[in-house]
Amino acid sequence: KGEDNHVPRDPRLLRLTGAHPFNAEAPLSLLYDTGFLTPAAIHFVRNHGPVPKVQDEEILNWEISIEGMVQNPMVLTLRDLISEFTQYTVPITLVCAGNRRKEQNMVKKGAGFNWGAAGISNSLWTGAMLGDVIRKAKPHRKARFVWMEGADNPANGAYGTCVRLPWVLDPERSIMLAYKQNGCLLEPDHGKPLRVVIPGVIGGRSVKWLKKLIVAETPSTNWYHYFDNKVLPTMVTPEEAKANKEWWKDERYTVYNLNIQSIIVYPENRELMQFKDINSESNETYPVRGFAYNGGGIRVGRVEISLDRGKSWRLAEIDYPEDKYRDAGIFELFGGEVNVCERMSYLCWCFWKIDVKKIELKNAKDIVVRAMDENMCVQPRDMYWNVTSMLNNWWYRVAVQSEE
Ligand code: MTE
């Protein structure tokens, strides 16, 4: 143990597992209060094994290979990536597929450890577009996937997975090879010196400490691609999932795009509220606040809260700080191949707010929230129990508790 002694860590992060590997999220209110950009120090961390040790002198000489179904296999150093490819800086939200797993484990334990609702963070990532690099390698006409592999060595071999090749080549998807987070070189926990960042897709596909890119016709055969980041049918129990590996090899259950989600930050669950002086004449309000996000670049269209468990709903106001970045032209892509202003995808979280009369809260048992996206996909009322407990997006609920 102690393999990660070289990694600096912020004491405010809440550890979710034992000493090793390191998995952590920030307190929800700290994450929200920090605003649109999350500092690296409190960005959630999901590691499957020890963090590779990379000295500062080695950063620019870090090598990645691009191989498989390409006409021009290559080995590139980070120096080459920076000097030979257009560099971009893009705000991107990463989310762990296990976000909110704690709620499911309370109902019926699945296979994974507890995440609260803060397995999400948003940063400005800087680097080359993966699509530019893959294009230069000239993928074969029949190629469909890009496999990615890291330099770490967790229990079941190097961490690896894949993403669809057409997405990699699509400017709207903004899939990056990033070496900077919020203007600084990557921290060890977040992939120092180089990682993949895939917006709108579960964090598990954004491979850290990147070493290898393999262009292929079929999905990755890496252990972590098979046995992680899948939503198996609800009747598959932990015992059945262990006994029958066929479930895991079925690519239909692999999750890529995130689903629509909204979280209440204020009030906190069971936050003690002062209702003593509140009567039916009182106009005093409580600022109910939270955030929402979605996958696949699709905008969150509306956020609604209910004080009567879904009998009636009221609309919250949404703020998309990402639009300001878009207006500032920070989304420049693919060296001018597309008109930058025409890029429409939404890659970041948004914030919602609604002021509610305290007298109404006093009479309510809880507050629930749900979001709907532009495609009219709405968060479900009920839990979809699944053995890995991933993409947990049923209505988010906080209990209202009075101080008396
Ligand atoms: N890449 C490697 N090489 N090893 C890992 O353990 N974890 C994945 C992904 N990339 C992982 C990895 C998972 S499950 C998530 S959610 C994200 O990294 C988390 O990224 P972060 O720790 O920078 O927040």
TrEMBL record:
<comment type="function">
    <text>Nitrate reductase is a key enzyme involved in the first step of nitrate assimilation in plants, fungi and bacteria.</text>
</comment>
<comment type="similarity">
    <text>Belongs to the nitrate reductase family.</text>
</comment>
<comment type="subunit">
    <text>Homodimer.</text>
</comment>
<protein>
    <recommendedName>
        <fullName>Nitrate reductase</fullName>
    </recommendedName>
</protein>
<feature type="binding site">
    <location>
        <position position="96"/>
    </location>
    <ligand>
        <name>Mo-molybdopterin</name>
    </ligand>
</feature>
